[in-house]
Amino acid sequence: MTDVLPLAVSFDAFTSLGFWLGVGVIAGSYTIFTLGLQLNVGFTGIYNFGQAGFMAVGAYSMAILVTDTGINFWLALPMSMLITIGFGLIVGLPSLRLRADYFAIATIAASEAIRLIALNWGGLTGGAQGIFGFDDSWDSLADTIEGWLMDLGWSDPDTLAPLFIVVWIVAIGLTFLLSRVQRTPWGRVLRAVREDEDAARALGKNAYSYKLQSLSISAALAAIAGFFLAINLAFVIPDEFGPTFTFVGYSMLVLGGLANYWGVAIGAIIFETLLEGLRFIDLPISEVKIAALRFIILGLILIGLMAFRPQGMLGKREEMVLGD
């Protein structure tokens, strides 16, 4: 007779504020990260698979500027965004002239190059051990926010509460800003480039320039997400910026719906809630097998969701067909 493995699932975590704050911080960071992918894929029609590399450049630039040069944390943030935009231009200037599939390969290669440089250039990036000690200014701000929360009646705020608040203020603000900008003539040109690049050129629009602008803004958004990831972890290491990060962003993008910025947040929240909630499956098997099982179950759930609503939670079916 075949033994049946006992399956135990605890739902206690879903009633814990700490669980939702943790999920919220990660989902908020991913929302900012994936807004760049939405701009590229959903509205410009370029397939950027190197978003994790842009995120790494932003996080490492901020950490190096603070720890090695002594620059103030709050000044290092915009400086690292400019560095990341510069890297985006370096990647985009030659590769955006390539066919879409070759551009995707080029961005993956650039992302992996950054990760491997960070892994091997120990004198600058700390190698596999990473960089620590760049978040003193953030800790001071977090203490101030906790004080405000206590004044409002929260006697013992969770340590993640300040980061949760700031992440979502930034995420919602950026989502609103991008949604508004998309309705401007500039945003309409991006959609024209996505639908028919040749027609956009025939109307006198420099499609290459608009695609480069889209990629640069996406790089800046990835840098902002990198800041929050670094603050959440309190360190920066190369392993956090692998290609998987970008692919998870694409899963959230598809789940939320193409060409809808607000759908990005919905997709990120659903994805992270499922992923973190599945940690509480208890089976008498090794942790490695449980981790693999979590992703199998998550994949099946996402397949089921997409089978019933292939356009995503807030997407439209007509947005699923991108211009060539």
Q: Care to describe what's here?
A:
Helix content is 71%, strand content 2%. The chain contains 13 helices and 4 strands. The strands form 2 sheets. Strands 1-4 form a two-stranded antiparallel sheet. The protein has a two-stranded antiparallel ribbon with strand order 2-3. α1 packs across α8 (185-195), α2 runs parallel beside α4 and α3 runs antiparallel to α10 (207-233). The N and C termini lie far apart (56 Å).
Please state the CA-atom Rg, rounded to the nearest Å: 21 Å
Count of alpha/pi helices: 13
Name the assembly state. single chain
Helix content: over 70%
Overall spatial form: globular
Largest sheet: 2 strands, antiparallel
Secondary-structure element series = EHHHHHEHHHHHEHHEH
> In whole angstroms, how far apart are the ends?
56 Å
Structural class: mainly alpha
Mean pLDDT over the full residue set: 91
> What percent strand?
under 5%
| Poorly predicted sequence stretches spanning 5 or more consecutive residues | none
Tell me the number of strands: 4
